[in-house]
Amino acid sequence: MPDTSSSGFARDARHLRLDTFVRLRWLAITGQSAAVVGAQFGLGLALPFGWCFLVIAASSWLNLALRIRFPASYRLSDDSAALLLAFDIIQLAALLFLTGGLQNPFSLLFLAPVLISATALPPERTLALGLLAIGLATILALVHRPLPWFADGRIELPFLYISGVWTAILLGTAFTGVYAWRVAEETRQLAQALAATELVLAREQHLSQLDGLAAAAAHELGTPLGTIMVVTKELLRQLGPTASPAVADDLNLLREQVDRCRGILQKLTSLDSDESGFLATVTFSHLVEELAAPQRALGIQLAVSSRGDGPEPVCRRNPGVMFGLANIVDNAVDFADSRVVIEARWTLDRVSLEIRDDGPGFSSEVLLRAGEPYVTTRSPDRPVQSDTVGAGLGLGLFIAKTLIERSGAQITLSNASAPGTTGAVVRVSWARQIFERGAGAQNLPEVAGQPLTERSATLI
Q: Mind listing the pLDDT tens digit for each residue in 232-245?
C-alpha cells in the first residue's frame, strides 16, 4: 500500500535522484576541464597539467561507475548523497592545491556542494559538509602549490588577502547554507501540506461518491426485488387458503421483508436523485449543531447559540467546510479546560461563526504564523488521532484554514482579550451572498421551524 502519511511526503521530498547529481558533476567536470585547458594553452600559464586532469578524471570515472551501476531514476539516501558531495569538495580541494590554493579565484566554488546539500539534505549533513569545506580551505590557505603565472614573473598575494578569501568562504558557506536550507524547507513543508490537503479532499470526495454508488446499486437491485415481490404475492394467493400456519407466517414475513427492502432502496435512490433537495442544504443553526453534537459526550461544556437579523441563512452542504470547521471545534474541545462557546451570528450582509474556549490560548508563534503548515502547540501528552492526515504535525490548522477559505470565508485567530479571561478565539466570516450561494429558500423542508407531530414523525 502506498505511503500517504506526512512522513512519507517528507522522505519523497528530500531524496533526490542520482541522475541529478551525475548531471551536475558532468557540468562541473566540463567547467574544470575548460578552465585548465584555457589557462594552459590559452593564457600560457604553467599548470601541472597531467596532475590536474588526473584529478578531473577521478571524478569522471566515478560518474561513469554510478551511471553503469544504478538506473537514472535511483534515489539516493541522505548518507549516499552526503558522501558524493564530500567527494566533490575533496576533488575541488585537490585541484585548488595544484593551482594556487585560496589565491585561485575559483576557490569560491567551495560553496556549491554546501548549497546543494542545504536544499536537499538534513541540516546535520549540511553542517558536516560545511565543516569539511572550511577545514580544507584552512589547509589550502597554508599549504598549496604556487599560483600559476606567466613565465616572466611570479605572483605571491599577501596573507591578509588570503585571510580575507578564507573569511569570505566561511561566511558565504554559513549564510548561503542557512538561507538555502530555510527556503527549501519552507517549500517542502508547503508542498507536503498541500499534498495532505489533497488527500483529505480525495477522501471527502470518495465519501460523496458513495451516494451515487448507493443509488446505482438501488436501481440495479430494483428489478430482481420486484420479481421476488411478484412471486411472493402469487404464493400467498395460491397457498394462502390451504397453507399451514408456519408456511403462512413465513410468506407474510417474506412479504414484509421485501417491502422493507423496497423502502430502503427508495431512500438510497432519493439521496442522489435531486441534488437541490432537502439533504443538499442546511440552515446555519443546523450546521452549527452538526459541529457540536459529536463533542457533547467528551466532558466539556458546549454553549451553542444562534441569532441574527432577518431570515436565517441557508447554505449548501460542503464537505470541505464541514471538515475544516469540525477540526477547529475539535481543537477547541481538546485544549479547553471546561467550556467551549460556539456563537452563530448573521445580518443581512454577513454570516459569522465564533468559536471560543477557556484554555491557554494560542501561542505567539501560532498567531504570527497562522495558516502556515507544520505550526502546532500540541504537547506530547495530548492524544492525537493516528488516522487523521497530519495528526500531531501542525497540519490540522493549515488544512482547516485552506478548506474554509476556499469557500470564500475569512478566518481570524486571536486570544481572549477581556479582563480575567483566557483562551483561543477563532472567527470565521462570510459575505451572506457567498454563504448562501447555490442554496435558496425553496430548498428548505416545509416543516422547518415546526415540531413534528406523531403522524409526521420520520425515521432518520
A: 888 877 876 777 88
